[in-house]
Sequence to fold (438 residues):
Amino acid sequence: MASLAEENYLKAIYKLHEKKGAMVNTSALAETLQINAASVTDFIKKMAAKKLISYEKSRGVMLTERGRHIALNIIRKHRLWEVWLVNNLGFKWDEVHEIAEQLEHVVSDELIESLDKHLGYPKADPHGDLIPDAKGRFAKTSSKPLLDCEKGNRVKFTGVAEHSNSFLQYLTKSNIKLGDELLVEAIEEFDKSFQVKINGKERKLLSKDVVKNLLVVLL
Amino acid sequence: MASLAEENYLKAIYKLHEKKGAMVNTSALAETLQINAASVTDFIKKMAAKKLISYEKSRGVMLTERGRHIALNIIRKHRLWEVWLVNNLGFKWDEVHEIAEQLEHVVSDELIESLDKHLGYPKADPHGDLIPDAKGRFAKTSSKPLLDCEKGNRVKFTGVAEHSNSFLQYLTKSNIKLGDELLVEAIEEFDKSFQVKINGKERKLLSKDVVKNLLVVLL
DNA sequence: ATACATAATTAGGCTTACCTAATTATAATT
DNA sequence: AATTATAATTAGGTAAGCCTAATTATGTAT
Fold:
C-alpha cells in the first residue's frame, strides 16, 4: 500500500512526534530525512490527500490513525529484525540499524509473525526499545533516565535514549550492558556526574551526558 | 550500485540465458518481467551504457562479466533467504519465493555472509537449486531429469526443474520430498510415464510431465 | 524476390520523488 | 509597529521507469 518513501516519512513523523510532542514541522522532517524542505512540503501534501497524515499549512503535520498504524508496523518490523540480527546472527547492537532500515520495508505479514514467534515474542529490541505488537500496542514500562534517580537507588539498565554509534560503542567499551544492575553511590551536584557500582562489582563515574541517556527501572 | 530494476533485469537475463542459451531477446525479457517491450528496449540501452550487459540492436543482450557477477549475487541471496525461510521459520517450499524476491535486494555483505554461516553454508536451496558462493561459483553436480534415466536405476531426488506452486504442491501432496530415493521399476514406452518405488516403500506412477521436472543423481 | 507476420525500436507522455530559486508566512527583536 | 531572521511554500525542472501508438527490422512462406 504505502510506498518506500511514504513509509520513511511516516516513521520519521512518528519519531519526531514522540520526541518533541505536538505537530511535526517541515524543517525537522527535512533534516531527519535528509531531503530538501521544498520536497517535503510537496510530499506531505500528497500524503495528506491520502489521509496518512493531517496537514495544517505552515504549521506542521500529525499522523492520522491510519498513518500511525503503518508507522508502528514499520517500527515493529525494524525492531524485530534488530533482535534477529543480534541474537541469531551475532551482530553487535551498533551494527544493526542500517540493515534493519532495509529489512523493515519487506512486506509479508506471515513473515513478520513467523519471525516474532521464532524470536520468542521479544518485548524489546537490542537497545531496549519496546516492540509494538501486530496491533500497534506496547507493553507498559516504568523506565526513566538514570539522571532522574537519587543517591542510593538500585536500578536495572533497560534501554538507551540515544542511539548513536559513538554512545553505543562507549557503553560497550565501558562494559555496560542491557540488564546490568546499577547502584547509585554518589551524585556530584556540580556537574551531575554519577558514581555507580555495576553488578555489585566494578565502580564507574558516568557524566551527565551519559546518565541522561541511560534508561533504567527501579529495583 | 545497481538499482532494484537493474537487479531484476540482470536476474531475468541470467535465468533466460541459462534456460535458452545464447542471447536473450527483448520479448522474452518483457514477458518474464511483465514489462512492455518498448520499456525493455529503453532500459537495456541504459544498462548497456553502464556495461552491465552487451546489447546488439534487434538481436538481444548478454551479461557482461560485471552483470553476471551482480546477477549471481542476487541469486545467491535469494536462495540463502529461501533456506532460512524453510529451515528456520517453518515456511513450505511453495511459500517462500515472493518473500525471497524482496529479501534478495537487501544490501549488506556482512549480513549475507553471516546468514550463510548461520545456515551452515548450504549448497542448495529448498528446491535443490545450487547456491553460488560469494565469488559466483557453484558446486558441481551431476543431476539430470528422471526422464533420462532407465529402468532399474536407483536415484536420489535432488531438485526440481519447474518451480510453479502447482508442481511443488503436487509433489508435497504425493509425499515426494527432496532427498527421497527413487527406484525406476518400469517405463511405459507409449507415454513415458514412470513407475517408481519411493524410499523402498510406496509405489507411484509419475507422468512424463512430472519425471521431466524431477532432477536426480544416480546412486 | 515479395509479401506477411512477428519482433524490436522510436517518439512522445506519464508518475514518483526528488531538486533549486524565488516568494510568502511566521516568529523574534528592537 | 516595523524590521529582520527563519521557516514554509510555490513554480519550474530533472531522472528513473514505466506506458501507448506508430514505425522499422527481421525471418518465414509463398
